[in-house]
Amino acid sequence: MFAMRIDEGLELRLLEQRHARALYDLTTANRAHLRPYLPWVDKLESVRGTEAFIRSGLEQFARGDGFQAGIYHRGALAGMCGLHYIRPDTRRTEIGYWLAEAAQGQGIVTRVCAGLCAYAFEELGLHRVEIRCHPGNARSRAVPERLGFTEEGILRGVDKLASGWADWVVYGLLEDEWRARNGAGAVLE
Ligand SMILES: CC(C)(COP(=O)(O)OP(=O)(O)OC[C@H]1O[C@@H](n2cnc3c(N)ncnc32)[C@H](O)[C@@H]1OP(=O)(O)O)[C@@H](O)C(=O)NCCC(=O)NCCS
């Protein structure tokens, strides 16, 4: 098992096939909560879809092109996060995440993203980390804003969500900005 400790009670575990049932059940129980912002939710029809997702995440990890991990809060699966890709030439990546509705409001994803930024800049030696959010997703937008990302612009009509074609707000954080904030001890406010 590959795991990354974020802080007391919060850990990321690389998703393996044995996690498929728990991840599928959590996703299914949270369909109504996730549907407005995640295009894949209604395409997931059975645990086989989750197994295929985990398989492709492990292949991605083996290629050195990112990973997909479960977020474990006090030992229980609370959601998911990952690096969608790693571009070695331009040294950049993009973080994705979701939480079960009941796990919100505790700073879990903000702390996870802070940990993933440290991993990206300090361990992987990357130059830029990106987070994309739906413009109407205030809770998601608050995550990069809390961590000092810069709002850089809007990509129009990128994804088809339940409500129709959706724009994405792009947030970016550069290595020197991370170091300036981290050195000042101002990562989490
Ligand atoms: C986006 C999403 C992950 C945000 O969840 P969240 O719980 O609001 O975010 P965090 O886990 O970072 O928690 C922040 C909340 O915890 C509070 N908090 C408590 N301790 C905290 C800490 N140490 N650090 C930061 N925030 C803390 C914050 O004040 C904030 O609460 P508030 O919104 O009432 O002010 C969640 O709403 C979600 O999964 N939504 C559906 C799927 C989705 O939108 N995914 C993202 C697609 S881009």
UniProtKB/TrEMBL annotation:
SUPFAM superfamilies: Acyl-CoA N-acyltransferases (Nat). Transmembrane segments: none annotated. Pfam families: Acetyltransf_3. It comes from the Bacteria. PROSITE patterns: GNAT (PS51186). InterPro entries: Acyl_CoA_acyltransferase (IPR016181), GNAT_dom (IPR000182), Ribosomal_N-acetyltransferase (IPR051908). One of its GO terms (molecular function) is protein N-terminal-serine acetyltransferase activity. Residues 10-176 form the N-acetyltransferase domain. Gene3D superfamilies: 3.40.630.30. GO terms for cellular component: cytoplasm. PANTHER family: RIBOSOMAL N-ACETYLTRANSFERASE YDAF-RELATED, RIBOSOMAL-PROTEIN-SERINE ACETYLTRANSFERASE. This is GCN5-related N-acetyltransferase. It comes from Truepera radiovictrix (strain DSM 17093 / CIP 108686 / LMG 22925 / RQ-24). The lineage of its organism: Bacteria, Thermotogati, Deinococcota, Deinococci, Trueperales.
